[in-house]
Amino acid sequence: MLTLIPYLSILILSAAGLACLLGQQMRPTMTLFLAEITSLAGLVLALGAACVLWLYGAQTSPVLGVAPLGLSVRLDLLSVVMLLLVGLLGWVITRFSTTYLDGEARQGAFMGWLMLTLASVTALVSAGNLGQLCLGFIGAGIGLRQLLLTYAERPRAQRAAARMRVASRAGDAALIAASSVLVLSFGTADIATLNATATGPMAVLGAGLLVIGGLLKAAQFPLHGWLTEVMEAPTPVSALLHAGIVNAGGFVLIRMADILLTAPGIMAALALLGGFTALFGSLAMLAQPAVKTSLAWSTIAQMGFMMLQIGLGLFALATLHILAHSLYKAHAFLSSGSAIAHVAAARRPGPVAVPSARNVARAFGLALAIFAAVGFFFGLSGKPPQAFALGAILIFGVAYLIAQGLADAAPASLTKRISVAALVTSASYFMLHAGIDWLMAGTLPVPAAPDALEWAVMVLVLTSFGAVALAQALFPLWAGHPAAQGLRVHLANGLYVAPLIDRLTNGLPKTRA
Question: Is the entire prediction scored with pTM above 0.70?
Fold first, then answer.
């Protein structure tokens, strides 16, 4: 019975959500207090689930309902970590929202949909059965759409919700189709059983549909446009995205990791599209003038990088990415207003040192040398090539910073600080990777030895990321060229992909709150 603890969290969050929806008047004091206490209870219950896992080990509860499409809870390290993440962020965002939305006419409705969305995400991350997985997946999308329409009179809010509905419903349909294929082919909806036994052509088909659903939910290219307009919703919605909503697609793929491994071609395609989205999103992010829009593009890029990790079979590392990115980005959104004020009040520095082409070449060589040295210190044996490929991409970013420190006009103190930062970054990567691999051993599959296709994908990804990092490091040398100015404008508009998709789909449907 202790395995069913997540259901208690789902029930109280749902009850609090319905109570808040009934108290939609301005400043509904009692319902706001109820929402805050309930979200805290959700965090406490997540800690209780962690204790159950510690005492009794991983297990799946009996099916509630008609098998195989009933409901069940899967308690293992992956679900408990996600429950703790959702519980912590849910409580913080709820507390923030009670003050942030004070005096808003729809505050009660907002808190109600916030509670219901958290309940759906809790059901998703604790699912031991495909039926519950689909319900949580669909419910989180419905809740998010309602939150995006908090200011339903704003045209951009309507456009964001309509774009999100198109991508979300298509993702829901793909997950339902994948679940149907797997259940009909293997006679069970139990996720642990499917991961252990599903093989063959039908497993490959199921994996393909799962990947489609995951990509659509994670705001991946080209249906990413809704996320770039999320600033039309209150700031807590932007933070809530990272509590298992925009990364729900990634979680589902990690949860069904063994089935994905039966389809190496599909995983290669996932890695390529994820890598492309990461590059596209990061370049567009650099050209954004608004803080929240820049953070939204950053999320698109990070979700792409997460899909790249999953496509390369680095499931444990992708889990770490979800945790770290969720905590960082939720904080970034919630503190975006104070960050703007801080930057506005800060004293402007003088001109930044511009590295020459020779400095950039030295920086890349030094960054790779640091990475190799740290990797050798931590031990190269036993590390999959996929992990080193991801680490090299990280070092490309570090090389950009080192280039600033190696510029001829840079002070010696800056060079030293950046060199230390490069060492710390490389060491942190290997330490965190080793830690998450140890933690998730037995819960998630380890990366398989790469075949020719995966080697080709890694080479292409490394070449692409390296070229972009090199162009970024050299950008100050040609920033004044008219072509560079034009490119910045096009990137700021996301290369006009979202409007093109709207046109190809004959415009967006009207959306009402």
Answer: yes
